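Technical annex, item 7. During the second reporting period the consortium partners agreed on a shared format for inverse folding records so that results from different sites could be compared directly. Each record opens with the tokenized structure and is followed by the designed sequence. A conforming record, contributed by the partner at site C, is shown below for reference.
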């Protein structure tokens, strides 16, 4: 599971094994180690009680919750992503996007082997 944070947006990209594990367990977690400082852990969880995609944070990490029905619909279909917008106390919004990770079409990458086939690959020629 890849994490990208930019401005007021969070994006998770899941490989095929990640999506399969999330479908089976309703939970994924990754940690970033900082050595002597505590790790930063980010999790994705399917929730029976959530009505919308939401994110919370603590000093040790971040937790993204997805309504279980939405998670099931996404993991069992060709749907590319799940998105949500969380209203913040400041009046701004936090954009949350969870996507299936596609293979890169511009350059071969070792890290892409578990990614989904890119639907644009046929329009850019052989890989």
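Designed sequence (site C submission):
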């Amino acid at each position: 599971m890849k994490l990208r944070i930019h401005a007021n947006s969070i994006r998770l990209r899941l490989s095929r094994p990640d999506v399969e594990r999330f479908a089976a367990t309703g939970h994924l977690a990754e940690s970033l180690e900082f050595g002597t400082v505590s790790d930063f852990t980010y999790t994705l969880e399917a929730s029976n009680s959530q009505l919308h995609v939401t994110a919370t944070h603590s000093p040790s990490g971040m937790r993204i919750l997805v309504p279980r029905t939405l998670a099931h619909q996404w993991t069992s279909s060709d749907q590319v992503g799940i998105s949500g917008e969380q209203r913040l106390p400041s009046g701004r919004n936090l954009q949350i996007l969870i996507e299936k990770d596609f293979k890169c079409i511009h350059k071969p990458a070792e890290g892409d082997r578990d990614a989904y086939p890119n639907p644009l690959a046929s329009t850019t020629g052989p890989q």
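Strands lie at 2-6, 9-14, 27-34, 37-47, 54-58, 61-67, 81-87, 93-100. The chain has one domain: 2-123. All partners now use this format for quarterly exchanges.
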